[in-house]
Amino acid sequence: MQSTDSQQKTQLLGLSTVELEALCKELGEPAYRARQLFRWLYNKRASSFDSMTDLSHSLRGKLKERAVIGFPTIRTIQHSDDGTKKFLLVLDDEREIESVLIPSEMRDDEGESKRLTICVSTQVGCSLGCKFCATASIKMKRNLSAGEILGQLLLVQQHSDRDITNLVFMGMGEPLLNYDNVMKATDIMIHPDAELLTPRRITLSTSGVVDGIQRMADENRPIKLALSLHASTDGLRTELMPINRKWNLRLLGDTIEYYYRKTRKTVTYEYILFGGLNDSYQDAVRLAKLTRRVPSKVNVIPFHPIDFTNPTGISAELAPASAEDFDRFLGYLRSLDVTVMVRSSSGKDIHAACGQLALSQVVQ
Q: Of 98, 148, 174, 270, which one is the catalytic site residue?
């Protein structure tokens, strides 16, 4: 919790019930006020203290002097033809991040999307340098706070006439390199008093941070885990994802087995398909062998070009698999008894699809 002086107030977004109790105690208020405050922040999504009508005028006055409810601000909202919205958000220090609101292609009987998913960022920039990811064009600036992570969900919800049903940590940054803040935000999201999301509707995608996966296992984190794989050999994966030099495929496989033994949760493997690079039958055989070590599914993802970041080297040479090769690869996997899903390209026309987040409104 931040201390308060004449220039700085305590940011309430991101505070847990325990931290809010400590704040109430400092303000001379009973502990039960913390639960009321928690519900106003996360359940009722209050943006001002005046709206907290079941808090006393005295407490609201103290909060105005001592604290702030600080949301990111919206610089732009881009609208895709498929209903996806991309939000360029500005933080208190003028750093920028992107969040994406994605309606599912699946429809209910009334024609509404069955799911409404928010893709959330966890860092300003990224340090991992994956060659297919636009965020790699932005140097790592800093981790987001728990409040800044939660702020994306709460703010974007204000710009939707439907409740957000799912959340994926697949935006800018590597979530497991900001472990404490990501998990603190997640704990608040799934808290019964917040009524924001259930654990099974939250997915964390990692490039393969072994220490973080092990910690998720040891803490028996209830959210879902997805592993960005994208190659079936160490040579290619290292070329595409430098993190593989530290944590190679064998170590990742062992860690995923450890995770499954501890949690009994299935794992999703993410596999971007590149034309002529990782789309052969032999790739499918190796991928099947890697993924069958634990109950899992493979999410095959079309490659979304990142030309707008002016890529060089292998990044400039990557190309999507043709429609025929894409379908052929899916057939290979299914013939090998792999459970296969296909990720949509929602928001591609506004650079909001998988791998395209790079503040493209300002990248020229």
A: 98
